[in-house]
């Protein structure tokens, strides 16, 4: 039928600690949901293995079907634990939940490392044991972040003589900052892994500590990150989070594949959360209406002639908010409004509240998590700020462009890969960018955006349409992952 079905079939087991809509705390949850769905269209059999957290909503829990259970040796002293398998099938993807109340009975998926280290040792080993138990031997095991990083280590040690050992492994880094580092005796005890993996080429990072992510990087066949630029950056000390040397050593198996966005959720023609739906043919007029109604709802001065800058983000250092803070007074003039949506560090929550008060009617700080408001801001703003310190991929700039909102970003990680800087001579590009992490350069980029908006509206409008026209669908990314799976198993 379609071109997709021409490529050979492969079976993939996804192993990770979160997945929308069961449990999500960040971008990892989005990928674990969208990528398997897109891979099914690329002629893949996909099974997603997740912890059965108690906090998964009841509407899903009640539909899970019991698939079996067994006892599994885990710890160095042979202590064993119950492993239950509960299954839920949805949209062609099979979700197998590892059931154990002792580990997954808390209110949140993550608590603190004291609990999380044993939890994810157990999870990694139980996931492999469950695949053997179900006799479902995939071509590829695709693991995500530190919580699943021991999977390749187990596979090449304690599982070497089992059926599952024929599988190839991929470890994807969604954010290098989180690594699962703890003292060696604790990880050695809970994982039950042989002593020789606690050497400096595998898990060991110092005299005292072991690093679960580092172990996964060592033992996996391929490492990927969620953008090309981030794949390069993490090999440098500035971005490498103390693993840069190790990543340089393994750079031959390191790749970058940029994430997509979910076109079912993010679709300007059908998005029910928007004041006015639109598409590329009427974006310019309809965005003005979305802007006016957004201004009305947020209590801003209603004037469609103003340049509205949106910012939707976790309010943490990673996102470059100290730069925004420094220059906000210089951004504000009689032609400009700023709309912020986010929660996080209280320093930033407080400073944005302060600015809302200082620039009443022209700055609106929504210190909350609100999906509906996010959609309205993406549609109603003219420009969108993402000045991150580091950004493995970043979804907000993709959503902004898809909604015809021009991004202003720092040239790092996925931002660099997805936002081509505007070139005034050739009238090409998708947004405004700056390189060094300096507030003056951010201000300069914002001023360049404003200048184009106010003096060459035709060029601005063309950029809006170019942005909407870019393809950020998951199908694109899924094709690249499928190629990688084929390359590994040919
Ligand atoms: P990260 O995963 O580092 O937080 P991403 O850019 O990959 O950053 O993803 C952020 C996602 O969370 C986007 O979909 C964004 O719209 C959403 N988001 C962030 N903060 C909020 C908020 N306060 N309200 C609604 N959505 C938010």
From TrEMBL:
Keyword Cytoplasm: no
Domain Starch synthase catalytic: 12-248
EC number: 2.4.1.21
Binding site for ADP-alpha-D-glucose: 24
Superkingdom classification of source: Bacteria
Catalytic activity entry: [(1->4)-alpha-D-glucosyl](n) + ADP-alpha-D-glucose = [(1->4)-alpha-D-glucosyl](n+1) + ADP + H(+)
Keywords assigned by UniProt, alphabetized: Coiled coil, Glycogen biosynthesis, Glycosyltransferase, Transferase
Enzyme class: transferase
Domain Glycosyl transferase family: 302-452
Ranges in a coiled coil: 277-304
General function of this protein: Synthesizes alpha-1,4-glucan chains using ADP-glucose.
Similarity field: Belongs to the glycosyltransferase 1 family. Bacterial/plant glycogen synthase subfamily.
Name under which the protein is recorded: Glycogen synthase
Species for this entry: Dorea acetigenes
Organism ancestry: Bacteria, Bacillati, Bacillota, Clostridia, Lachnospirales
Gene name linked to the record: glgA
